[in-house]
Every structure is written in structure tokens, then in C-alpha cells.
Design brief:
The protein is built from six helices and no strands. The protein has one domain. It is an all-alpha fold and about 160 residues long. The chain starts with a helix and ends in a 9-residue tail after the last helix.
């Protein structure tokens, strides 16, 4: 894993390790559903990325180009474009995590963690996107719950023997 991501992982793990632990049976159950959650959310992020793409480039008629030029500031256009990139990378990361997660391979957990970090970046960008209706505080809270659950099941994933 990238060195900076590993540093973030270590710092977050120090925080989440002190929180109450969930039962071992719940951890086992989570490891069974996480591959499917990754597929579902990966597919949803592909749809959201295409939706943002459509917002910027879907209708290339002169009226739409003028509408976008008048409606979105340069910062908002940049935010939309960055959102497309982040959601796309996160979606690919989630979809790539399926197979290793099915094998309880740590690589799958690492990919989920990376996707969760990308989603935090995306959430922090939301204020720069004009039509963002998402509550940033709520999204960060949900991300915190996601990190908590990820660190709860981390021990269930083993490094590949290759």
C-alpha cells in the first residue's frame, strides 16, 4: 500500500482500536457481506460518476453549453470534474476488492480502506459542487461508522501467501 495511506491507516487504527468492539460472530457476518456491499456501492458510484459526467457533458447542444457556462463557476466545474475522477477511482477500487474480500485476503480490506478515504475526500469536496444536496456533516459521520466497522473486521483478513 502507498506509504501515506499506510500512515493514515495506522493513525485511524489507533483511534478506532479504543472504541468498543463488536462480537466475533458479527465480525464474521460482516466479512461475508462486505464483498457484496463493495459490488453494490461500486456500481452505485459508477452511476453517480456518470450522473456528474452528464451534468457537465451530457448535452453538448449550444444551449446546454451556455447554461453550464452561466450556471457553474470555474470552481464548481472543477469540483464536478474532480468528483467524476474520485468517484470513478473509488468505484473501480470497490469493484476490485470483491475477489480478495471473498477470499478474506487483506488486499480486499486495503482496497475498501482506500475507497473509504477517497469517499471522505469526495465528501469534503461537496461544498464546491453547486447542486450538492448532501449534508457534509452527516456524510462524515457515516464515513466514521464505515471506518469503525472496517477496523473491527480488519483482523479477519489475512495477507496473501504469494
Amino acid at each position: 500500500m502507498i506509504k501515506q495511506v499506510a500512515i493514515i491507516e495506522t493513525k485511524l487504527e489507533r483511534f478506532f482500536i479504543n472504541l468498543p468492539s463488536i462480537s466475533n460472530s458479527t465480525k464474521t457476518s460482516l466479512t461475508k457481506v462486505l464483498p457484496w456491499i463493495a459490488i453494490i456501492f461500486g456500481a452505485m458510484q459508477v452511476i453517480w460518476a456518470f450522473d456528474l459526467w452528464n451534468t457537465l457533458y451530457g448535452n453538448t447542444s449550444i444551449e446546454n453549453v451556455l447554461y453550464i457556462s452561466e450556471t457553474y463557476s470555474s470552481m464548481e466545474k472543477l469540483g464536478l470534474f474532480a468528483g467524476i475522477i474520485i468517484l470513478s477511482i473509488s468505484a473501480i477500487t470497490l469493484l476490485m476488492s470483491y475477489k480478495p474480500l471473498m477470499k478474506n485476503n487483506k488486499k480486499g480490506w486495503d482496497l475498501l480502506f482506500l475507497s473509504a478515504l477517497l469517499n471522505v475526500i469526495y465528501v469534503l469536496m461537496i461544498p464546491f459542487i453547486n447542486n450538492a444536496r448532501t449534508n457534509v456533516v452527516m456524510s462524515i459521520a457515516v464515513s466514521g461508522i464505515g471506518f469503525y466497522l472496517l477496523f473491527q473486521v480488519k483482523s479477519k483478513y489475512k495477507k496473501s501467501s504469494r
